[in-house]
Amino acid sequence: MKRNLIILTLVVFACSSIFLLSSCAKKQVVAEEEEVTAPPEEVVTVEEEEPSIEVEFAEEEEEIEVAERVEIEEPEEVEVAEEREVEEEALPEIVDVRLEGESVYFDFDKSFIKPEYRATLSEKASILKDNSDINIRIEGNCDERGTNEYNIALGERRANSAKNFLISLGISSDRIETISYGEERPLFLGHDEDSWSRNRRDDFVIITE
Fold it and tell me: Is the dihedral of CA 114, 168, 158, 97 positive or negative?
């Protein structure tokens, strides 16, 4: 009986010990779990905004386009300037040819302007209007037939006919001189109608100061 009581006591003690040990273990585990599962403190960080890559690309493309436009426009401007210089250099030659290159021809012993040469004189008048700094001299000429005195007078009438025609088109008389060379300056030395018809003429010369 006494032995049974001792055994029972030991059993109760063992159970109590086991219970106490399990309770402590549970508390320790819960504490550890609380330490582990505790939420970390929130750290607020301010991130610097980086420039958008798309914006950078757009800005670079815009700069490239502007540079390309400048590169394209500059050669065009240079080409236009060069063309203007060439035109300005060629203009005096064109004016000289159109004013001096075409003569007006007359019938035998006549001094009136033939209808086919009115367009020629009109073109000369237009050039003179566009170039107010240019003055001209009209030189009257005749073929070899007739006396020198007569041909000088006839050449003067021919020069005055062209002058009066230009004046009627709005050219000031102060810009036009006339002179007659009669038969003294033939362009063709033949003694036939073809040569004579080419020598009955008015020539136009630009007067240089």
Answer: negative
Please state, for a pLDDT cut of 90, what percent of the chain lies above it.
51
pLDDT tens-digit series, residues 45-84: 545 555 555 555 556 666 666 555 545 545 555 565 566 5
Query: Measured between alpha carbons, how far is 209 from 207 in angstroms, rounded to an integer?
Result: 7
Tokens of 8: 């029972």
Q: Is residue 58 part of a domain?
A: yes
**pTM, full prediction:** 0.58
Are residue 90 and residue 109 in the same domain, yes or no? no
H helix or E strand, kind and range, residue 143: none
Tell me, what DSSP letter sits at residue 144? S
Q: Is 135 helix (H, G, I), strand (E, B) or coil?
A: strand
Question: Domain limits at 86?
Answer: 54-100
- Do 136 and 175 reside in the same domain of the chain? yes
